[in-house]
Amino acid sequence: MIYETMPNGQQIPALGFGTWQMGGASSADRSQDNALIAAMRQFIDMGYTHIDTAEGYGATHTEELVGQAIKGYDRNDLFITTKVSPEHLRYDDVLRSCAGSLRRLGVDYVDLYLIHWPNDAISLDDTFRALNQLVREGKIKHIGVSNFNVPLMEQSVRLSETPILTNQVRYNLLHREPVNNGVLAYCQEHDILLTAYSPLKDGVMRHPQVVEIAASRRISRPGGLRWLMDQPRDHHPQNERCGPCAGQLRLAHPRTERRRHSQARRDWVAAARTRNTRREERKWDCCKRRSRLLLARAQALAKALPAPLRAKAPR
User: Residue 186 catalytic?
Assistant: First the structure.
């Protein structure tokens, strides 16, 4: 897992999983609760310990599902993000919303608390008065925003007593508004993480260049995630990406994947020897299953290749 370092030195997983529409969208859907809880636990076992949710997801039900899913895990191993809805940005409403989120999640604090969307009808002064109080009380570790433009970010930086950790915005290979409106540059200049949501939406996986690169290397298409995580933390105009190209899409060959998982195995075994935790053992089991799956796929591909090429196929 790749990590980003926060201002206080703590590390946050650069890749997490979002829970939008897990348990409903604008209203609660309880028809698949058991399956969703099991899926979330599987994600955690695979190493996705950065969990992103919101009180607005499933009309608060998604937070309840996350709370059920994380039971039994070491809280220190998890990074939990949730969000306060735009209609709850007044001082008292922020405090009530945070208390409700903590209760549904079953935790004493959240690592990151975001303003989900700005609300022009409510002063940010009122909102940040509550957020700063929650930080002082230890109920939230870090403050962030979502869907904020540069003027709103400037105001947030001024009002927050602690550094703004992130601005979560829609950003991917095809949706470049954070570049065009200056949000990405502002974050880079002020050491604020930019979190991209919907990284594979907007037709990214069907984009002709992504499809062409994937086909030429006989692999799946996760390159949009790699491209996002490679964005520089500091701002240099020459580093601005203007379009997808092969050099910016690091797509993994099965042999590379096998080497990566072999290294992960060694790392996890070393950690297990010193910590002897069930979590490390679960991660190693997942690694073995993943490695076996990749090997089976590579061998199947080798059998399908013409005879002159089989010698070059991974074994």
Answer: no
pTM for this one? 0.71
Are 132 and 161 in contact by the 8 Å Cβ rule? The answer is yes
In Å, how far from its chain's centre is CA 275?
26
Q: Render pLDDT for 244-267 as a digit per residue (tens, 0 to 9).
A: 222 222 233 333 334 444 554 455
pLDDT at 245: 27
Identity of the amino acid at 4: E
**Cβ neighbours for 292, distance < 8 A, ≥ 6 positions apart:** none
Nearest by Cα to 19 from 59, 77, 63:
63
C-alpha dihedral sign at 83, 85, 91, 93: negative
DSSP string, 229-243: HTS-SS--GGG---S
**In contact, 148 and 190? CB cutoff 8 Å:** no
Q: Are 43 and 17 in contact (CB under 8 A)?
A: yes
Radius of gyration, CA atoms only, the chain: 21
Which residue ranges in the chain fall short of pLDDT 50?
234-261, 264-265, 268, 272, 308-315
- Given the residues 3, 48, 57, 197, select the one marked as catalytic: 57
Q: Which two tokens stand for residue 20?
A: 């939008």
